[in-house]
Amino acid sequence: MEPKRPRPPTSPTPAQPPSHDVSKVLDDDNLLCEIIVRLAFPTDLVRAALVSKRWLGHASDPAFLRRFRKLHPLRPLGFYVATAGGTTAPRFVQMPSQHPELAAVCRRGRFELDSFIWDCTNGSVIIISEQGGNGLTSRVYSPLFPSRSMPVVPELPPLDHVTPANYTFEKLLFREGDRSGLPYLWLLMQSIDHGYTVHVYMLQGGVWSKHTSATTEFPYLPSEPKPLLIDNKIYMAGALSRQNIVLADNTRCVAAILRGILVVDLKDSSFFTIQLPEGVEFLDRDVQLAKTDDDSGVYLIQLKDLKLRIWLHSSSTSNWSLVDTVCLREMFVALRTADHTVGDEHTLVRMKEAGDNAEFIVLVMGTSILYLDIKRRELLKVSDLTAHEQFFVHIYPFMMVWPPTFPAPKDAAARSARDKGAIKEE
Asked: How many CA atoms lie within 13 A of 313 on its CB side?
């Protein structure tokens, strides 16, 4: 048998020129936008914007951001849990089973607080602290940028009336996309006699000036109205009556029955009421309002008999439409099977917070804090309540800043030149 001849050595394959398919795609603005919009997180958009001025223009375009927001609902990075009156320091609970991208964002932040939380919105926490015995001072803290200075919220001017109020409620309201670092509006509500007087102040040049005042005869409001600023209107769930009820643990309490949504129109300093969907009547702990991303209306989320019903009230048609129904019973059973510390279906469930666009809600079930992603139909246990937190607990979802803060065009160009992987424009 003739021995096998050794094969001649093969010369290495010459390097192939880069395919023109990639440049053909990336040079097409429509295709490029279709690629960028499929990125998962706002941090990805910022990285894309650093490639070039052209990519920055696409990623920061308002119409593109609205589309991205609809495709990728914002997820909380975690929650601040605090007791009413600030008897204990608030604690931050990171979202369980978090995506590595969001977990990396949390690792770069500093979330510890030793001050009372007044509110938490759009990547900022409003804290109240004592300053050298000079009383309480409100400051804006950015946990994702801990090195930044904390702006001081100016004090409100004295009110110009002398009638003592039976009840006073204050709330800082932020307009979406405001870059000032300070609240845009301050809502001050006072119950005087049989009605409510609402004062709205606007921050201009570091000084609060009265924007509008209005008075309405509205018998009751919930103890925590949770007002929403949508376009030039402030929405609050309202109550028209009170009644004695028996809770699941056989205790009795006086509860407000909600029958409408009170709206303050800032344009003409007027009030009006949106009637609830036909047949809907509920207690103040059973309802949450949520804003729409495009300011086209308001969502109403009702919890009743372990079932969520979500309505949308359109500003253009003034009509209600039932947009979603979520049955929680089976979700609770599955969660309890995985974690026996979660209460059973007979445990009292309360809604605490709702995300924008009705994308999620935060529930308290017995001593457990639960997070329901409505869009994905995912129910997670976030944390257990401590003994101090089981009564009068406040939960503040902490969200990433939206819209993202994009680099200036010259910064993006400089980064593009340094980045070897950047694609050069012709």
From this structure: 19
